[in-house]
Amino acid sequence: MKVKTLLFSALIATLISSCSGTYKAYYQTLQIAFAEQVDAQKTLDEVQQSEVDIISVKRGDRAAAIMALAYIENGQHKWVSTDNAMLIMHKGRLIRTIGFSDNLLYLSNIENDPLKLLADDSQSSQLPDSWLRIADRTGDEYGYPIKSIFSQAKQDTLQALNLNLDTMYYVETVYYDAPSDYVRLVSSWENHFWFTKNGGLIKSIQKISPVSESLKITYLSRIARLNQ
């Protein structure tokens, strides 16, 4: 195992052991995350047999990879990959990334994220007109204001693990109008979210900036549990 991988494993172990009030995943999390080869395709049975939650993540045009849930802390789900990347999510929202060439370092006002309302269809009609937050990114991109507007729900059929899933589909239009240190040809983009009728987020496509690669995230374990 490479020194880089060993150091990252030690960091994760330290974080897990030092967290109080944390729902910790099984030790198999690290075995999945740091296996020499990770199969990007999982069958329904394989996902159901997994002792930890897993997701499929496709970054841009790259091949999809499997990430495992390392632990949950303060409502944040922290997922690790075989190449030492980490995604940190709150209520399905990417709030921090580690190990990418372009990382999200901080996101403000997550307690007012409308995604929490979208998880409860009975409250989706109470969506605010817009959601404002501040984002910090690598490359001296600090303190940039971002505004989001959500579409009304549409019914959509999602296919995953050879299952056809009835979902409620939302589009988030994101505006990144702040001045930049470089020429910005694109100042807006879209994020996409698919919820089950019971309010569980099972897929999203998110970007952290207009120039970032998209991250297509499919919640394999959540989908597998729908078929149990």
Annotation keywords:
single chain, 228 residues, alpha+beta, YmcC-like fold, 14-stranded antiparallel sheet, 14 strands
Q: How would you concisely characterize the structure shown here?
A:
The protein has a single domain (3-226), classed as YmcC-like (YmcC-like fold), CATH 2.40.360.10.
For the report, how would you describe the main beta sheet? 14 strands, antiparallel
Helix coverage percent: 10-25%
Total of DSSP H or I helical runs spanning 4+ residues: 5
The proportion of strand residues reads 35-45%
Average pLDDT taken over every residue: 83
What is the terminal-to-terminal distance? 37 Å
Please give the CATH architecture: Beta Barrel
Uncertain residue ranges: 20-39
Total beta strands: 14
CATH class: Mainly Beta
Following the backbone from N to C, one meets helices and strands in this order, namely: HEHHEEEEEEHEEEEEEEH
Radius of gyration: 18 Å
Number of domains: 1
The CATH homologous superfamily is termed: YmcC-like
> What would you call the structural class?
alpha+beta
- Could you say what the CATH topology is called? YmcC-like fold
Shape: globular
How are the SSEs placed, and which strands pair?
Layout: H1 3-18, E1 23-24, H2 28-33, H3 44-49, E2 54-59, E3 65-73, E4 76-80, E5 86-90, E6 93-98, E7 104-107, H4 115-118, E8 131-137, E9 141-150, E10 154-160, E11 163-175, E12 188-196, E13 201-206, E14 215-218, H5 220-226
Antiparallel strand pairs: 1-3, 2-3, 2-14, 3-4, 4-5, 5-6, 7-8, 8-9, 9-11, 10-11, 11-12, 12-13, 13-14
